[in-house]
């Protein structure tokens, strides 16, 4: 059996980010062959990731990377907020956001195939899974391209729990950042009421009509009541019509107009939205990990 030195173990740990014992075992298994040891750890990393694939990763971080005329907003998930706040996880998220902003892949699979210091982004995800012991996944991303007369604005809230990316026609980066902050806080659904789908509008109107009739309102005034309530609803879901979070005396559209611009688009990611989180006994979960 080949003698494994502390220097070899350190080198392998530096290359892969795994624990000391995992690195030593891989070197012993490959009789000190560094490249084969890396392959062994990658293979084990894949197995480890697959073993954890049934778990729900509903925590994590949203991040934004802006590279010239391209910007990317991403969501990367972990199982616990403890791992989401760790340095290895934060470094992975930053790398993923930067690579996606640079390369603008068309899908999550294409993003995972992008080159990384670990080989690919998928390899980097596996390596971080090894280090943290949790399932980690790139859930989604959006890449936006802007023109020369447009400005990006981004805002990250609460350590990455919410991320917002905005594009303004005209105005400036400071105004765009202020609108991104508003988007993060208020969560609009559309830029303007004109973007609301006709079927969505018709459904809401039908609900409001039935609501007014059930309240016993006379039919002759129901239409006017519904018109007022529909306008209120539209102002609540449309970014342009919302009261600006930093100045409730004006709408977002009026604020942006005062800066010489207009809202073009926005994207808002809230970590874990739409994911059904598992509940269970935390002590049992810890004990099961110890037994693995």
From TrEMBL:
It comes from the Bacteria. GO terms for molecular function: translation elongation factor activity. It is found in: Cytoplasm. SUPFAM superfamilies: Elongation factor Ts (EF-Ts), dimerisation domain, UBA-like. PANTHER family: ELONGATION FACTOR TS, ELONGATION FACTOR TS, MITOCHONDRIAL. Signal peptide: none annotated. Pfam families: EF_TS. Belongs to the EF-Ts family. Residues 80-83 are annotated as: Involved in Mg(2+) ion dislocation from EF-Tu. NCBIfam families: tsf (TIGR00116). The keyword Oxidoreductase does not apply. One of its GO terms (cellular component) is cytoplasm. The lineage of its organism: Bacteria, Bacillati, Bacillota, Bacilli, Lactobacillales. Residues 71-273 form the Translation elongation factor EFTs/EF1B dimerisation domain. InterPro entries: EF-Ts_dimer_sf, Transl_elong_EFTs/EF1B, Transl_elong_EFTs/EF1B_dimer, Transl_elong_Ts_CS, UBA-like_sf. Keywords: Cytoplasm, Elongation factor, Protein biosynthesis. Associates with the EF-Tu.GDP complex and induces the exchange of GDP to GTP. It remains bound to the aminoacyl-tRNA.EF-Tu.GTP complex up to the GTP hydrolysis stage on the ribosome. Its main location: cytoplasm. PROSITE patterns: EF_TS_1, EF_TS_2. It comes from Lactiplantibacillus mudanjiangensis. This is Elongation factor Ts.
């Amino acid at each position: 059996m080949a003698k494994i030195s502390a220097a070899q173990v350190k080198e392998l740990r530096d290359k892969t980010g795994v624990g000391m014992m995992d690195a030593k075992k891989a070197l012993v298994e490959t009789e000190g062959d560094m490249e084969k040891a890396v392959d062994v750890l990658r293979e084990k990393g894949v197995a480890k990731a697959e073993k954890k694939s049934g778990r729900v990763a509903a925590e994590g971080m949203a991040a934004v990377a802006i590279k010239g005329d391209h910007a990317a907003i991403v969501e990367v998930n972990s199982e616990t907020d403890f791992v989401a706040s760790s340095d290895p996880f934060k470094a992975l998220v930053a790398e993923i956001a930067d690579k996606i902003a640079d390369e603008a892949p068309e899908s999550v699979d294409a993003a995972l195939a992008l080159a990384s210091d670990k080989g690919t982004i998928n390899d980097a995800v596996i390596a971080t899974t090894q280090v943290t012991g949790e399932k980690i996944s790139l859930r989604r991303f959006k890449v936006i391209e802007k023109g020369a007369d447009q400005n990006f604005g981004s805002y990250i809230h609460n350590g990455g729990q919410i991320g917002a990316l905005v594009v303004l026609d005209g105005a400036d980066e400071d105004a765009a950042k202020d609108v991104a902050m508003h988007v993060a806080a208020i969560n609009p659904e559309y830029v303007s009421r004109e973007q609301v789908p006709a079927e969505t509008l018709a459904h809401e109107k039908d609900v409001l009509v039935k609501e007014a009739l059930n309240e016993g309102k006379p039919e002759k005034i129901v239409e006017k009541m519904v018109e007022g309530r529909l306008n209120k609803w539209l102002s609540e879901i449309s970014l342009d019509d919302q009261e600006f979070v930093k100045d409730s005396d004006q709408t977002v559209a009026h604020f942006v107009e005062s800066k010489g611009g207009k809202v073009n688009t926005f994207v808002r990611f809230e970590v874990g939205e739409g994911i059904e989180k598992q509940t269970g006994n935390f002590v049992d979960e810890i004990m099961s990990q110890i037994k693995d």
